Structure formats: structure tokens, C-alpha cells
Amino acid sequence: MWAGRKRRGHRGRKPKPIHIERKFTPYTFKPSPPQQRPPILLSPVELEILRLVDIEGLPLTIAGQRIGVSRTTVWRILKESRRKIASAILTGRPIAIAPASEQESP
Asked: Burial, 52: exposed, middle or buried (Cβ in 10 Å; 0-12, 13-18, 19+)?
């Protein structure tokens, strides 16, 4: 499965699509006791990078090769996803896995 990304500004080239090996279904982790706060969204790309680096223990360069992006892109996405998870835990907000806006590989 391929996941497209969007630019963070108006200039520059479009980002490369990232190859995701697993298909993640949308779900939500809720704190106990539940609170009425908006959830923090994690994309399937962020989940895939967390899985490769933190669960499988791959170095950033190899994880980048497996999903088709550079080491620095992997590091930036990994840092952002870890920040989101820490923020959700410390503030008691739910974590929602966003549905994939996917493009099938050609």
C-alpha cells in the first residue's frame, strides 16, 4: 500500500509516496477515565515508522530504504509521532489512528 503525503508549504517538489507494508485499520485509544477532549491523530505513515524503528529495532537508514524515503525524513516523522504520543499520554487525550488516504502501487 502506498500512502501519499502533502507539502508543508507552497514551494518545492511534491513528497515521494511512502510504501506501507501493513494496512492499519482506524481505531482509537481512550484514556481512563474518559474525557471530552479532541483526539490526537496519528497517520498510518507515522505508525509504520514507529513499528519499523521502535518495534522491529531497525536503524533509520534501513527503515528509510524499506519505505522508500531518506533517513532524515524517517527521523522527522518519527520525532513528530513520538511527540504526539507523549503529548496524548501526559494530557490525557485519546489517540486516534487516522484512516489511510492511500494510493495503490502501480
From this structure: buried
For residue 59, is the peptide bond before it cis, meaning its omega torsion is within 30 degrees of 0? no
Q: Please, what are the domains in the chain? A: 27-103 (1.10.10)
What are φ and ψ of residue 91, in 5° steps?
Answer: -100, -5
Q: Which residues pair with 42 in a beta bridge?
A: 97
pTM of this structure: 0.78
Q: Read off the pLDDT band of 17 (50, 70, 90).
A: confident
CB 94 within 8 A of CB 31: yes
